[in-house]
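ESCALATION

Customer reports they have been waiting on this structure for their group meeting. Please prioritize. Original submission:
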Amino acid sequence: LPLPALDLLPMQRYRYEIMGDHFVLFELSRGCASQCAFCLLKTYGHGVRQKPLARLQLEIEKAITAHGVRKAYFFDLEFTVLRRQVVQLCDWLAEMDFDFEWCCQTRFDLVDDELLAKMKRAKCTLIHFGVEGGSDEALARIEDGSYGYYLETGEEIGIKRLEARPVATLSIEAQERRERREKQYGDRDDRYR
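Update from on-call: job pushed to the front of the queue and completed.
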C-alpha cells in the first residue's frame, strides 16, 4: 500500500483538543489480545496484526518532515501489547529527536517503569489507560447478563440511572423507596450509597 496521502488533507484542520494542532493518527497494530466482556471486537477480527516497524517509521518521518506534523495519537487499541516493537519505536524516536510529541492508549498491565521511561524519552506526553471494570463482581455481572438490574428485586436499573451513576445498584424508584423507608424507620444500609 502507498503511504497515507497527507498532502491531500487540509492538515491545518486536524487537531486533538488535548494535544493541539499539526496532528495525525498512526497505527502500529490492529486488533486486540484481550477479551473484555464489554467490548465488541468484530470490527477488528481476531488477534493482533502488526504493521512492519520500518513502514511505520517511514510514515512518521514523512509526516513530520513533509507535512509539518508535530503531534500524533497512536490509536492502537493496546499500543504496548507488542512490547518489543514499541521499545524499538521508542528507541528510534528518541534517536531521531524530532520536534514531535505523541500519545497512545493501553492497559495498566501492559506497562512497567522501564517501558514508561522509554516512552517518555521518545516524547510520549499522554497515555489513555483503559479500565475494564471497577470490581470483579461488576465484570461477573456483565458476563452473566445481570448487570443493570437491581440485585434485590431484579428490576431494571435503567440507562439514565446508569449514565448518571455507573455504579448504581438501585433504580431511581428503588432508591426513593429505600430513602423513604430510612426516613420513616431509620433503617439505614450504607452498602447501597
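Sent to customer with the following note: Strands lie at 15-16, 20-21, 23-26, 29-31, 48-50, 71-74, 101-107, 124-130.
Escalation resolved.
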